[in-house]
Amino acid sequence: MQKTSSHTVISSFPEHLLEVTYPLMEDFYTIQGEGAHTGKPAYFVRLAGCDVQCWWCDVKDSWDAEKHPKITVKEIIDRVAESKAEIVVITGGEPLLHDLQPLTDALHTLGVQIHIETSGSSPVSGSLDWITLSPKRFKEPLDEIYPYVDELKVVVLRKKDLDWARKHAALCPEKTIKMLQPEWDTPKSIPLIVDFVKENPEWRISLQTHKFLNVP
């Protein structure tokens, strides 16, 4: 993949879009720990603000956008370019609360692939190369996202979550990769998932490997 420096972006990208800001909780270069791209190096951009607010969320500090600094597109792409990452994962919070077009357009000029992890509760925006939908009961996805879902990742705590997973899988394209992920603090969900996948081999199991590896 041909990479471009952030200096090239600055000279070729509209200046007013480089000054667009997003509430940023954190950003870091690490290894993707979950889902279909587990094990790949990726730069994570965690935007603040969430209207879903799952009680078992492990990044509750991301919920309140007002608690976090507004960072410009230019600052973000400079950091991504310095990392030399080939994949950027936009996550949250709920990243689709924000208009992602300026950020994704700028990131694409670096030659990176852009992934998003979303509950689908807000309208889709931005130019995205991989959409991971993780639907939540607290606020269901909008219908508009389903045709674009590359990966469906459902967090499982109890048996009824398996029916929830089937419901959303039926709305996604046939090519969608279907993943079930045990909630980290609910180990009793593991045998439920294992038995389900054995009986439904079109599904896979996603583990939070970054927690086992003790990386961000």
Question: Can you tag this structure with a few keywords?
Answer:
TIM Barrel; 26% helix; 216 residues; 24% strand; 7 helices; alpha/beta; single chain; nine-stranded mixed beta sheet; globular
Task: Summarize, please.
By secondary structure, this protein is of the alpha/beta class. It has helices at residues 6-12, 15-18, 73-83, 101-108, 160-169, 189-199, 209-213, and strands at 21-31, 41-47, 70-72, 87-91, 113-118, 130-133, 151-156, 177-182, 203-205.
Polypeptide structure, described:
- With 216 residues, this protein is α/β, with parallel strands linked by helices.
- The protein has a domain of 148 residues: Aldolase class I (TIM Barrel, Alpha-Beta Barrel), CATH 3.20.20.
- The chain is 26% helix and 24% strand.
- The chain has a 9-stranded mixed β-sheet with strand order 3-1-2-4-5-6-7-8-9.
- The two termini are 25 Å apart.
- The averaged pLDDT comes out at 91
For the record, the CATH architecture of the domain at 6-153 stands as Alpha-Beta Barrel
In percent, how much strand structure appears in the residues?
15-25%
Element order, helices and strands?
HHEEEHEHEEEHEHEH
Summing up helix and strand content along with how strands pair, one would put the structural category as alpha/beta
Helix content percent band? 25-40%
Approximate shape: globular
The count of β-strands is 9
Low-confidence stretches: none
Rg of Cα set = 17 Å
CATH topology of the domain at 6-153: TIM Barrel
CATH level-four homologous superfamily name of the domain at 6-153:
Aldolase class I
For the biggest sheet, the summary is:
9 strands, mixed
CATH class of the domain at 6-153: Alpha Beta
Q: Strand order, main sheet: write it out.
A: 3-1-2-4-5-6-7-8-9
How many alpha or pi helices? 7
Q: How far from one another are the termini?
A: 25 Å
